[in-house]
Write a structure and sequence with these properties.
The complex is a heterodimer of chains A (about 200) and B (about 80).
Chain A (H helix, E strand, L loop, with lengths): L7 H9 L3 H23 L2 H20 L9 H21 L12 H8 L3 H7 L2 H10 L3 H11 L5 H8 L3 H30 L3
Helix pairs in contact in A: 1-2, 2-3, 2-4, 3-4, 7-10, 8-10, 9-10
Chain B lengths: L6 H8 L5 H13 L1 H19 L8 H11 L7
Helix pairs in contact in B: 1-3, 2-3
Classes of the chains: A mainly alpha (about 200), B mainly alpha (about 80).
């Protein structure tokens, strides 16, 4: 994690004492990390932004009402709020009925794959967005461990406790997530080479 | 006797979740086992890319939250 001159803990103390600039600094420091975590889970930029807003509003309300008590660990605390909101939303969205094709796949996923918009094409050309897309497309169980370990900074023991599996299962899921991502990134670079050097 | 090191042990090593003793064992075996070393290098490369991934909300996001914060009074100050 990045080291700053003024710690998060000091900024929270300043904020609690009425310094709004201190909160601005916390916001600037951490909004991208929280946004990335949420976006990777819900897969929709606008929804992610709504949830990010809800996350920071919850944080402000908790701190201003004097209920904040996180032993100086602001980032893990706010990441946890964002992560939980995203997971709740993701679970709710999974309850909506989906239209299935004969092969059992989701109609809308097929449409998206068959007919990418101009914007989709532009977005997919960007390597950052490709990585984002690959993470989002991982099986849920692998994505969950990857996000918890990489962005929420939870140990494999904490992840195992949180998700109700053994440490070995959590480790196995992380290993498969990394292997799958590596494979997808290699496939991408091969596709790029073929497009640039057609036979 | 040196115990057998698995890829999962290497993952724990990458994330600094191994004991001192296990760390020494893993480093020894990484030096001798090219397949484990490949896994280590590839994992490190992928993890670096994942951790460098930064998505940004829209430009007016700060303003919305700061406005909200400014409009809300601290309960203990008033």
């Amino acid at each position: 994690m990045k080291k700053y001159k003024v710690s998060d803990s000091d900024l929270v103390s300043l904020y609690i004492n009425g310094n709004e600039e201190a909160f601005k600094e916390l916001l600037i420091r951490h909004k991208n990390r929280v946004f990335t975590t949420i976006h990777l889970i819900v897969k929709d930029r606008y929804l992610a932004e709504d949830l990010l807003q809800e996350t920071f509003i919850k944080a402000v309300t908790t701190i201003k009402s004097g209920r904040y008590n996180d032993e100086g660990k602001f980032l893990p605390w706010i990441l946890r709020i964002g992560h939980n909101l995203a997971i709740d939303t993701f679970r709710r969205s999974k309850r909506y009925p989906t239209v299935l094709m004969e092969d059992g796949s989701n109609l809308f996923e097929n449409l998206e794959f068959a007919e990418p918009t101009i914007e989709d094409r532009q977005v997919m050309n960007d390597s950052v967005n490709k990585l984002k897309h690959h993470i989002q497309e991982l099986p849920d169980s692998q994505k969950q461990v990857l996000i918890m370990r990489s962005y929420l900074d939870m140990s494999f023991k904490e992840i195992a406790d949180e998700t109700g599996v053994s440490i070995n299962t959590a480790l196995g899921r992380m290993r498969y997530a990394l292997i799958n991502l590596k494979k997808k990134m290699q496939e991408n670079s091969l596709a790029y080479d073929k497009n640039n050097y057609p036979r | 006797m040196t115990k057998t090191i698995t890829r999962d042990d290497v993952l724990k090593y990458i994330y600094k979740e191994t004991s001192k003793e296990d760390t020494i064992d893993i480093e020894k075996q990484l030096a001798m086992n090219s397949s484990l070393m490949d896994f280590y290098n590839q994992s490190i490369e992928t993890i670096k890319r994942i951790q460098a991934l930064q998505l940004e909300p829209s430009d007016n996001f700060n303003e919305k939250i700061l406005d909200y914060s400014g409009s809300l009074k601290f309960e203990h100050i008033s």
